[in-house]
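Entry 14: structure prediction run for Inner membrane protein. Input pasted below.
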Amino acid sequence: MLEFILSHDNLPYFVCGVVVVMLGVIEMFARLAGASLVFVLDEPEPNLSTAEPSNPITQWLYLDRLPVLLWCVMALSLFALLGFATNLMCYLLRAHTLPQSISVWLVFPLTGLACHWLGSRSWWRYDRMMKDSDVDLSGSVAVMTLGTAKPGVPAEALVKDPDNHRHYVMVEPREGESVFVPGTWVVLLSRRKRVWLATRFEP
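Run finished. Output tokens:
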């Protein structure tokens, strides 16, 4: 199996897999340091769902609706998995793999279709988070759920409105506050674009 994975015909897919693993390791260390690569890269604006797309290809692939890092990891992972799967199927049926010049051009459109399908299902939560940022939740108590928030580095929090509806919002501590780790209860104070400034909740 190792010989199959490292074969010349599988080189593009092996490289993509290595890149995904490296990004995962870097993200893990970033999380341990209280940051995240996702928030460093450019992301779509909150009102993107009503904006005109820059071009139909990026819209169809959901490249203009998901965080750049998330989309790149998704595309690279799908390309690697589909490439290995294609060559494995060919190897099992014909006892040899497809040359790169053939398999790559076969896997490219399959990856595009997979990105469209998976992107449409990944976007709903991100889109909901962006819409939730427009709800007036000043004074509401939220709990940090994902990532470590510190000044300039927002993280995800869960809050319920007066009607008991759940909202996922991006939160960062106000100036002078300490970091918020997952499980920390905070009070939302004011919204700056799509990010809520918050202070630690003292019951």
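Notes: Residues 42-53 have pLDDT under 50 and may be disordered. Will compare against the previous run tomorrow.
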